[in-house]
Design a protein that fits this description.
single chain; 8 strands; 32% strand; LytTR_DNA-bd_dom
Amino acid sequence: MMNVGPEKKDVYDLNPHDAYFFKIGAHELVCFHGRNYSIKQRFSAEQTSKLISDSSFYRISTNCYVNLFKISEIRNNVVMFRDEIHGIKTINVPRRNLEQIKRLLPASRRGAEEVNQVV
């Protein structure tokens, strides 16, 4: 009798555009951070290149990219991703990148950001 293990399949159907931000690590590992998860996946060089060239993501450091469409607020040097159920997830952003992020934010977010700065 032959024992056969279960097929290897992804437990998570990861859509990179659902993640708040991701970090690229060594050995082709990409770590996605979302509202209630951090998932590491191996990506080929081609997949990684396609991901970092996507206009939804902006590079804030050598290996970290934020999803512009998921940003809810920017305060001081902190980008906030807000979720009504899971709360707030934050990431520090170098000051030199903040102005560019503000310019790239979708129009609906940009208006809210300007109101927050006036207050």
